[in-house]
Design brief:
54% of the residues lie in helices and 3% in strands. With 154 residues, it is mainly alpha-helical. It has a two-stranded antiparallel sheet with strand order 1-2. Strand 1 and strand 2 form a beta hairpin.
């Protein structure tokens, strides 16, 4: 129902999803992991960043697949809009290094899930295999002398 509305707004979709996945804390379970056995440590449920990661990496792909499988263009369109417009603060080593070394001089910020997933995919496919000559971003920097490729070797 969240994704199926034709004129759904991305912020509303995102906040509705956050509300659905926001964990409800019960005082008993924050101090127990089994019935009748108090735990030594207090347990903390996932915070906003973890919920956002789950939405981006699990919920959106599954909903897109659902929309595609059942030919529901509203769902596919809303998932795509959310994926491309949601603003995220990348907290990933690969994206931080890529941004610092490759994109900062071009004033480009990795700030959407699509950009974040794209740079991780480029890294995973090209960098560990040292295929800079096959990567459009890698080609730019492969010819620079004295440039340390920290994104490849970290």
């Amino acid at each position: 129902k969240i994704f199926g509305t034709k004129s759904a707004k991305t912020k509303e979709i995102f906040f509705d999803l956050m509300e659905i996945f926001k964990p409800v804390t019960h005082t008993y379970w924050s101090g127990h992991h089994d019935f009748g056995k108090p735990s030594k440590n207090m347990y903390k449920l996932g915070g906003n960043q973890r919920i956002t990661d789950i939405i981006i990496n699990v919920i959106l792909p599954v909903m897109y697949l659902y929309g595609n499988t059942f030919r529901n263009d509203n769902i596919k369109e809303n998932v795509s809009l959310l994926y491309n417009s949601l603003r995220v603060r990348s907290d990933n080593r690969i994206t931080r290094i890529a941004e610092d070394q490759l994109l900062v001089s071009r004033n480009i910020k990795i700030n959407t899930p699509a950009m974040e997933q794209g740079i991780i995919q480029l890294h995973n496919f090209y960098c560990p295999r040292e295929k800079c000559d096959k990567c459009l971003i890698g080609k730019i920097f492969a010819n620079k002398k004295g440039y340390e490729y920290k994104i490849i070797y970290y």
